[in-house]
Amino acid sequence: MDFLFLKRHYKIVAAIFITVGALLAAVFTQGQLKSGQTTDWLDVLGEGGIFVMTAVWLFFLLASRPAGKVTYLLSIGLTCFLCSSLLDLTDEFVSYPSKEFWLYWIESLPALVGMVLMTWGLYQWHHEQLKLHQQLSRREAFYREHSQIDYITQLYSADYMRDHLSQLIAEQQNYALAMLDIRNFAEFNRRYSTQDGDRLLREVADLIVMNLRTADLACRYAGDRFIIVMPNTELAEAQEVCEQIQQAVKSLAFKPNGNNKAVYHKIATAVVLSEPAQQFEQVIRQVNLALEK
Ligand SMILES: Nc1nc2c(ncn2[C@@H]2O[C@H](COP(=O)(O)OP(=O)(O)OP(=O)(O)O)[C@@H](O)[C@H]2O)c(=O)[nH]1
């Protein structure tokens, strides 16, 4: 159990102890002790139980909440309730000078005030939870959306592409799958730098996107490999898209950092067509094999 809350809420804790202490002092200095024979022990058990349980609620409230308006409202409300239950309990042992005595009078009032304050506090807590929930769902959506985008190229990730392929299969759509690979990328990284490598990946990705049709989807599959999914596309059409990308990359005069001389690149491509109801992992394996060849 973490007792750091005593430090966090020291003002509230001190106020509770002072209030309860002052009430007890008032009860025992102003009232007269009853004889033991008149004590109703069932009442003592019930009222004492309410007092202890209210104190336990207060303890858990302070232990689990940060300082703030909601915590103040709830702890003041519970303290009022605590005072009422304390007076209820003590009047089993102490009698007051008359029925109009001020301690009689305040016995019931704090409970009502406490209930009102707690109701207001709970209402504020409800709003606080709604705001927290809104923030959490915004953050969750951010991570969900961004985990589907490759950080370097800003293309879709391989996971997103797999979801997309599953959807095409569910809709019974056939597709052409193209794989593209930058030649000698490892060597380029070695000769220049990985920062230049990252920039090259980004520029090649831009060229891929520029040559796509609206229904096509491109993703960074791994390292220097890209995949394009082209729904309802014939082999010749898909190959034409790949050739256009190859031409665009071939003409890209890439200048590594600190070099005025352009470096030119080639990409290898392969295309396969999916069979009806074929597992997409199998199509990816086929296109991978075709590219290796
Ligand atoms: N700069 C950079 N390099 C990466 C990244 N991811 C993978 N690589 C590097 O990409 C290289 C890919 O190497 P290979 O698969 O051998 O590809 P390659 O050199 O083009 O060989 P071929 O495809 O046979 O021409 C490896 O050296 C990886 O370290 C990345 O995000 N940024």
TrEMBL record:
Annotated coiled-coil segments of the chain: none
GO molecular function, one term: diguanylate cyclase activity
InterPro entries recorded: Diguanylate_Cyclase (IPR050469), GGDEF_dom (IPR000160), Nucleotide_cyclase (IPR029787), Rev_trsase/Diguanyl_cyclase (IPR043128)
Enzyme Commission number(s) from the entry: 2.7.7.65
Reaction(s) this enzyme catalyzes, per UniProt: 2 GTP = 3',3'-c-di-GMP + 2 diphosphate
SMART domains given in the database record: GGDEF (SM00267)
The entry's keywords: Membrane, Transmembrane, Transmembrane helix
Residues annotated as domain GGDEF: 173-293
Gene3D superfamilies: 3.30.70.270
Annotated SUPFAM superfamilies: Nucleotide cyclase (SSF55073)
Transmembrane segments: 12-29, 41-63, 70-90, 102-123
One GO BP annotation of this record: negative regulation of bacterial-type flagellum-dependent cell motility
GO cellular component, one term: plasma membrane
NCBIfam families noted in UniProt: GGDEF (TIGR00254)
Name of the protein: diguanylate cyclase
The species this protein was found in: Catenovulum agarivorans DS-2
